[in-house]
Batch of 4 targets.
Target 1
Amino acid sequence: MKYDTRVGYQRAVKLIGPPERCDMCGKKFPERLKKPMTSTHLEPDQPTIDHILPRAKGGGNAKENLRWVCFRCNSMKADRLQCTRCREYKDASAFPADKHKRNGLGSACQKCVTDFINDYYKTEKGKAKRSARNATRLGRERRMFNSAKQRAKSKKLEFTITLTDVKLPEDDLCPVLGIPILLQDYQSDNSPSLDRIDNSRGYTPENVMVISNRANRLKRNGTAEEHYRIFRYMTNQLKKDDL
Ligand SMILES: [Zn+2]
Ligand SMILES: [Zn+2]
């Protein structure tokens, strides 16, 4: 475990007062360990100076960034960041980007941010806001774009489209079935749906089209060849020599 030795014990005492209890586990420091630390042979209950925002991530030696924690807790923390909401220590990669912060990362972890947003959309206010947004063309296109981005990520699909590639049909009709496309709040046959024309390919500008939910559901992951065979079957044109 390495920690800053440039901020000396006495200097820290001047800045934040003598060590009383660990700021992480709350345990009182034993009297005999309240003395300047050496970098070797630290005991688990030894007070150590902790940089709340690790120095490696841009945290400085100002008193606002310093606190006393026991060596045990400090060792567990390593150079991880503490989430201001769940108080858990996580790797920097678990935090969303925030260009307004000095270290470029948000103060709450991605999971907490996501939970917070989801909780908001469960409230009446959040629900009203979401439906108002989904009822606008741009709002709906943005939602389809964002869900596609999520799906691409989880299914590891190519994703090179931008928001301008997600366009509701100008005439508000499904280009496949000709049925109306409606921006209702609930999912129906008439809801718009972003389709990958060739299911074996990802979200690329030439491979996406907004079609009706019904067309997308019927098409599912079938190939053109398979749909042609289904068409022949349904119209009684299927002959044994086709198979
Ligand atoms: Zn502790
Ligand atoms: Zn969190």
Note: The two ends are 69 Å apart (CA to CA).
Target 2
Amino acid sequence: MITEELLQVRSDIENNLRMLLGRAVMVTDLDAFALPCGCNGITANIRGLELDDIEVFEEQMLIYFKKTASRLGIPPSFIFARLIPGSSVVAAINWRVLCDRCYPDFARARGKTPRPDIYIMHLERRGQQKGTKKG
Ligand SMILES: [Zn+2]
């Protein structure tokens, strides 16, 4: 049952962030989502995390977040933090499997903040996967 897996992963992410940062961070919910366009993924809504924390611990967090994706059976191709615009508060961590229509919007972006509410931690460029392109 996917929801039992989500329960476990929610608490693991929370514990991992607490250990890393040494203070209280809460994953208030962990949701699986599917959009009409074909994008799908996982969202971890978070309280107590700041953009500074991500910038300092980005490498460690990313290793852990990639493991989290494979644990949930999704490719770790696009991982980003959603910010509350105009602040440094991290509202959520998103693992999004981009559909073919949405992928170019993000791939075109330069830098880590293509939008005021998005901080890209990891985006796999599809052009780099030589010979693996499917019709
Ligand atoms: Zn899409």
Note: The mean pLDDT is 92.
Target 3
Amino acid sequence: MSAPVPGAAVEAAPPTRRIGPHPRGETVATAHCLDGGCGWGTPPTAVPPGVNVECLAHATATGHDTFAVTVEYVALVTDAGGAGRDPDTAA
Ligand SMILES: [Zn+2]
């Protein structure tokens, strides 16, 4: 067996698991203006598109155009074939 050639393509194994939002998990989004000294920010919301709307309104009102947007959610890993465990009954 020969050593791998640097820079050569590596064939990846097919994925056996995938990750996505937990069906019963919460999503929380926030945004903060990055214009120096502004201090504007949104309260946490469960509706991420609403954060973008608030950023657009703030940008229109102030001319500030750069924001730190954070979206956080609970993730669940499942088998790629669809055979996942039930998160309510699994230990
Ligand atoms: Zn601002």
Note: The longest strand covers residues 27-33.
Target 4
Amino acid sequence: MSDELLSRLSQRLIVHSGVSPDEVLGETKVQGVKLNGQTYDADAVLFMTGVKPDVQLAQSMGLEIGGLGGVKVGTLLETSKDGIYSVGDCIEMHDRLTGKPVLMPIGSVAARAGRQAGVAAVGGKKVYDDVSIRFQYDRIFDTDIVCVGISSVIAEDLGIDANVLYIEDPAEFTKIALVTSSDGTLIGGQVITSRMGARIGYQIHKRIEMGAKLDEAPLLEPLHKRMRDHLEETLGPIQ
Ligand SMILES: Cc1cc2nc3c(=O)[nH]c(=O)nc-3n(C[C@H](O)[C@H](O)[C@H](O)COP(=O)(O)OP(=O)(O)OC[C@H]3O[C@@H](n4cnc5c(N)ncnc54)[C@H](O)[C@@H]3O)c2cc1C
């Protein structure tokens, strides 16, 4: 968990990092959790953990598995066997920029992959280029956390020469990290904010989809400009 998120959580929450619970206690509702042999009282237990592709079914069918442990698929989500398509957490997606395999266990990607595979399975030739753009939105207590596209860590793993631009809007209690490729094209963004995270995430997503450069399509305009635009939209031009 990032320091930024930790600093925003209520002091009443206890965060244990890098450990797995031995047991969640309680019969009909959560009453506590056992960690490293020690028992803690709790009204709720929230796990943050990774995801591993479940490929048992695919393996039993003889489908090819990739180097990252997910089902290997082509651009149309076709597997190594004719007429069989695979989507979701169990597959290795193709990164949009490099074509390299990546794991993206997230519903937004699974849904778009489903659309692509469905179209291909009935003979459609359309290739959607937004299939592997991740859009993840979580609201943890009173904080929106949004991850769109590629993070700087994933960029490094994929060998993309990326830059990160940090912007802050203190009036909205918002911090944003924007990831751009070496030519300035927006390829990812992460947002942490008290509200409207999904809306900012959508703005980032739209720009990634368009292949926009940040200087052509800046993300957060200064507050006074937004206010002026809002007033002009609702009341007409300001003289
Ligand atoms: C706690 C949690 C919160 C999440 N929150 C979000 C979120 O906010 N936004 C988001 O985009 N994504 C979220 N995700 C991720 C999202 O749920 C997954 O990416 C998405 O459900 C993957 O779809 P899928 O079809 O691959 O797998 P699943 O939705 O897991 O569906 C697989 C289905 O196949 C069935 N199955 C498995 N093996 C067999 C078999 N041998 N025979 C028959 N059936 C079988 C399973 O029972 C299951 O019903 C979350 C995931 C978790 C666990």
Note: The domain at 135-218 is CATH 3.30.390.30 (Enolase-like; domain 1).
